[in-house]
């Protein structure tokens, strides 16, 4: 018995083959239906065509009419071809199409392709995409662009070798020499290509256009693959295109050839190698057996650039006396990095320099001045400031730099240099521009950042303007329409603003070292990013003191106080605020002096000294009211309310919050209103009125979203989730926690992330998932410790003790509770926190049978309750119930929150 083989598109070369194999595919698709093959009517229906199209479909599947590629795709899909088979059918269509083209075969097909790179790695996905463009989409011209050394030629040649069999009439390679001082003109290039085909025109053409006619006539529709390497421009390439869909042209260029794209070419930009592929390339080319961690460092210093990786690997292999660590040290030094990336007559710097020389002078200026900027993204205004040109010329120059692959455009008017390209720019600017010119350029960039930061501050905090002025070119003056626009700009430029210190230090522009951090301090407070600038305030204070700028000394002293408060160093913070107050009084600024009383009051509150805190805030309220400073009075009411909240004096807290809201509303300060509204929600939550709390949170959330205060949004979502969890609606809390986590992660607010983890752990605890809750809390603990958040550390330790105790490990829980108690007592001096830790420790001791020790802890907790009120009163009452020692009057002891 003979068996008929199934359909095999690889057997297809001519129209008859196509018809035969489609018949077999149709037969396979009909199995189990009782028919020998899918009927013509059924196939037409599957194709979504009207019944009247049956004759057309019949002419296609029988080979009478050449089926269009997209129709064949639809037919084989309708007949059940798998994705892999669909690609093979697409190949088959191409072979049939080529077989029908009227042509005369060349006597001897020519192959002048250079060899494929045996170390090719890391670009399989790109190869697959480009192959698909040729096979299934019929691309006739692929334009591959990218920076020098990125691997364009390697990719094009690898692709050419993989596709060579599809172009049996020849595979040609020519270097158009754009990366030399003498690029090949089109006429000479065409003469060389024709010579490869042993074609010499009877009469020498006079122009490139005439050479192009001879070239296209010689090919005559044949299937030829041509690699045009190192193209300078569309103009250089256009006459070299065969003009036939049977041929394929691969063009590589450091320049983005938009002119070819307009003509229908497919463009592909080559990026750096993925890190694993970059490591693989280094270990393939270089020595074996080196320390993987050192190799990882070397590859990162090479920036994933294949040329750099190859040269460094080769250089290390050629130096047997060097270790990989020696090479890593050489590369780590910016002064020697590019110099180390060379082998024989090849170097990364030389590759960059050839491209640089092709730039016009204005473009060279803009490029090399970019090297004065810190690594990372930068915007158009900064590039304009560095170059000293106007906005329009600067934009034109940057467009050219993007086109020539010197700079990557990562957003609208947003640019980034590859690390090695930036180092090359730094070398160019140092060689070309005298130091005074570089200093002036850097000062212009710093002026832009400072001016825009001051403008953002004025938008976000109009009631506390910063006494600083800076003049910039009209093109660079930045104003913000509203708070959200100001916040978005600060978010976008935060890394650069924090890095201004390095730019200023390089050219002894010392005043910027305190002026820029001062300008963004309020924004950092909104983001809880006080640590981001904290290390700059100390240096700023030293330099301001040396320069005898008393205003700057006072401002920096106050900001250092903020850092100390955030780190739990409350006594130092209070001393700093009071010292700054004295300076402001001497400077004749009573408003700022009164502000320092409020800041000192915050330190007292965070230190558990609530009476002292109320005294400071009350004095500040008196001074601000006497100065008719409505904003200062509103802040004082808000802060007084915060003290009353933590001491359990909720009516007084609500009254002061409402007075603050009234004053903020008159001023139009929406963020202040939102803050007090959200805290009213907290009070309702503490009182157990979760519905009222949720309503207040929603009001605050609308305001925070409208102003773009993402930190406020995140905190409010977290508070809403907490209220919902307490109200017994954990399923409604989870989406809010997810959004809050996304926000805090996006704005790089680790404290917010940790706070969300704590509420999430409460949900897990409620569900009895103690192991998961413990995991969340341990992650939060790591964050608090890493950010030196003393209150967070102490609080999460108490929460951990509770979770671990409920999980049946009272011994471990006691360890956490004891550590929490030490933090509250020694680091943050919070009596309320000590009460909570003592209560939890007492429960742990009861669980381990140590009744007397538990009683001692309970007594200590009661003793600390003097002058403190709290919503945790029930917690102490529960403990006393377990001990059988409720207060004689039957009332609840009062405990700090």
In short:
65% of the residues lie in helices and 5% in strands. The protein has 897 residues and is mainly alpha-helical. The strands form 3 sheets. A 6-stranded parallel sheet has the order 1-3-4-5-2-6, sandwiched between helices. The chain has a 3-stranded antiparallel sheet with strand order 9-11-10.
Characteristics of this structure?
897 residues; mainly alpha; 434 Repressor (Amino-terminal Domain); Rossmann fold; six-stranded parallel sheet; three-stranded antiparallel sheet; 42 helices; 11 strands; globular; disordered C terminus
SSE order and pairing:
Blueprint: H1 15-29, H2 40-46, H3 54-61, H4 69-78, H5 83-100, E1 110-111, H6 124-135, E2 141-145, H7 152-163, E3 170-175, H8 186-196, H9 208-219, E4 225-229, H10 234-237, E5 248-253, H11 258-262, E6 266-269, H12 275-285, H13 292-301, H14 306-317, H15 324-332, H16 334-340, E7 342-343, E8 346-347, H17 348-357, H18 361-370, E9 378-379, H19 380-387, H20 391-403, E10 408-411, E11 414-416, H21 419-432, H22 435-460, H23 483-506, H24 512-526, H25 530-546, H26 550-566, H27 570-586, H28 590-606, H29 610-626, H30 630-646, H31 650-667, H32 670-686, H33 690-707, H34 710-726, H35 730-746, H36 750-766, H37 770-786, H38 790-806, H39 810-827, H40 831-847, H41 851-863, H42 873-883
Parallel strand pairs: 1-3, 2-5, 2-6, 3-4, 4-5
Antiparallel strand pairs: 7-8, 9-11, 10-11
Helix pairs in contact: 4-5, 8-9, 12-13, 12-14, 13-15, 15-16, 18-19, 18-20, 18-21, 19-20, 19-22, 22-23, 22-24, 23-24, 24-25, 24-26, 25-26, 26-27, 26-28, 27-28, 28-29, 28-30, 29-30, 30-31, 30-32, 31-32, 32-33, 32-34, 33-34, 34-35, 34-36, 35-36, 36-37, 36-38, 37-38, 38-39, 38-40, 39-40, 40-41, 40-42, ...
């Amino acid at each position: 018995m003979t068996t008929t083989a199934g359909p095999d598109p690889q057997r297809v070369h001519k129209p008859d083959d196509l018809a035969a194999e489609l018949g077999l595919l149709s037969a396979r698709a009909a199995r189990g239906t009782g028919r020998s093959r899918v009927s013509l009517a059924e196939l037409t229906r599957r194709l979504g065509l009207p019944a009247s199209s049956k004759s057309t479909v019949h002419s296609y599947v029988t080979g009478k009419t050449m089926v269009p590629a997209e129709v064949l795709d639809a037919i084989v899909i309708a007949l059940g071809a798998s994705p892999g088979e669909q690609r093979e059918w697409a190949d088959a269509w191409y072979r049939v199409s080529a077989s029908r083209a009227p042509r005369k075969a060349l006597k001897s097909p020519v192959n002048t392709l250079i060899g494929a790179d045996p170390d090719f790695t890391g670009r399989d996905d790109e190869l697959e995409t480009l192959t698909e463009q040729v096979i299934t989409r019929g691309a006739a011209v692929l334009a591959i662009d990218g920076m020098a050394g990125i691997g364009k030629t390697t990719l094009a040649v690898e692709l050419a070798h993989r596709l060579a069999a599809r172009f049996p009439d020849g595979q040609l390679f020519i270097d158009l020499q754009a990366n030399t001082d003498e690029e090949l003109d089109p006429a000479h290039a065409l003469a060389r290509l024709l010579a490869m085909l042993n074609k010499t025109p009877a009469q020498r053409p006079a122009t490139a256009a005439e050479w192009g006619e001879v070239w296209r006539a010689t090919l005559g529709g044949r299937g030829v693959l041509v690699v045009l390497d190192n193209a300078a421009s569309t103009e250089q390439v256009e006459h070299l295109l065969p003009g036939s869909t049977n041929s394929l042209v691969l063009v590589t260029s450091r320049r983005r050839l938009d002119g070819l794209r307009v003509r229908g070419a497919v463009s592909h930009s080559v990026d750096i190698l993925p890190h694993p592929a970059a490591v693989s390339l280094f270990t393939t080319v270089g020595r074996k057996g080196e320390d993987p961690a050192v190799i990882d460092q070397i590859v990162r210093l090479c920036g994933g650039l294949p040329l750099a990786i190859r040269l460094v690997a080769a250089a290390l292999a050629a130096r047997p006396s060097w270790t990989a660590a020696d090479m890593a040290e050489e590369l780590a030094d910016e002064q020697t990095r590019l110099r180390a990336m060379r082998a024989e007559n090849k170097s990364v710097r030389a590759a960059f320099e050839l491209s640089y020389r092709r730039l016009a002078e204005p473009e060279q200026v803009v490029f090399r001045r970019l090297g004065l900027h810190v690594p990372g993204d930068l915007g158009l205004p900064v590039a304009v400031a560095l170059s000293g040109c106007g906005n329009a010329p600067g934009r034109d120059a940057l467009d050219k730099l993007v086109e020539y692959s010197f700079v990557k455009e990562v957003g609208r008017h947003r640019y980034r240099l590859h690390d090695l390209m930036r180092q090359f720019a730094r070398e160019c600017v140092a060689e070309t521009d005298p130091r005074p010119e570089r200093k002036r350029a850097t000062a212009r960039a710093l002026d832009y950042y400072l001016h825009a930061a001051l403008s953002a501050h004025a938008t976000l905090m109009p009631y506390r303007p910063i006494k600083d002025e800076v003049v910039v070119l009209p093109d660079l003056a930045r104003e913000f329409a509203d708070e959200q626009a100001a916040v978005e700009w600060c978010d976008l430029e935060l890394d650069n603003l924090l890095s201004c210190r390095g730019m200023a230090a390089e050219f002894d522009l010392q005043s910027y070292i305190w002026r820029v951090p001062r300008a963004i301090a309020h924004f950092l407070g909104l983001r809880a990013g006080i640590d981001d600038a904290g290390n700059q305030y100390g240096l700023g204070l030293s330099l301001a003191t040396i320069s005898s700028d008393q205003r700057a000394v006072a401002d920096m002293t106050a900001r250092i106080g903020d850092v100390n408060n955030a780190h739990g160093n409350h006594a130092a913070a209070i001393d700093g605020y009071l010292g700054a107050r004295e300076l402001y009084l001497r400077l004749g600024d009573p408003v700022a002096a009164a502000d320092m009383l409020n800041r000192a009051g915050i330190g007292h509150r965070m230190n558990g000294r609530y009476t002292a805190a109320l005294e400071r805030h009350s004095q500040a309220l008196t001074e601000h009211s006497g100065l008719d400073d409505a904003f200062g009075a509103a802040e004082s009411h808000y802060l007084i309310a915060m003290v009353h909240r933590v001491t359990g004096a909720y009516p007084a807290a609500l009254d002061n919050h409402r007075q603050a809201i009234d004053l903020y509303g008159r001023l139009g300060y929406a963020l202040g209103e939102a803050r007090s509204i959200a805290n009213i929600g907290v009070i309702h939550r503490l009182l157990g009125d979760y519905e009222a709390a949720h309503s207040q949170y929603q009001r605050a959330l609308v305001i925070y979203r409208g102003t773009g205060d993402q930190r406020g949004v995140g905190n409010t979502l977290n508070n809403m989730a907490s209220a919902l969890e307490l109200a017994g609606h954990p399923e409604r809390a989870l989406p809010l926690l997810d959004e809050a986590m996304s926000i805090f992660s996006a704005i790089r607010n680790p404290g917010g992330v940790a706070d969300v983890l704590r509420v999430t752990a409460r949900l897990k605890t409620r569900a009895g998932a103690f192991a998961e809750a413990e995991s969340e809390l341990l992650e939060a603990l790591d964050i608090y410790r890493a950010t030196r958040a003393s209150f967070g550390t102490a609080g999460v330790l108490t929460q951990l003790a509770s979770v671990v105790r409920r999980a049946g490990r009272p011994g471990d829980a006691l360890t956490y509770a004891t550590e929490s108690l030490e933090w509250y007592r020694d680091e943050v001096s919070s009596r309320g926190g000590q009460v909570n830790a003592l209560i939890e420790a007492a429960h742990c001791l009861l669980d381990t049978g140590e009744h007397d020790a538990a009683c001692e802890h309970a007594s200590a907790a009661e003793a600390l309750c003097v002058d403190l009120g709290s919503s945790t009163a029930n917690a102490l009452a529960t403990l006393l119930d377990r001990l059988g020692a409720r207060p004689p009057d039957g009332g609840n002891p009062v405990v700090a929150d």
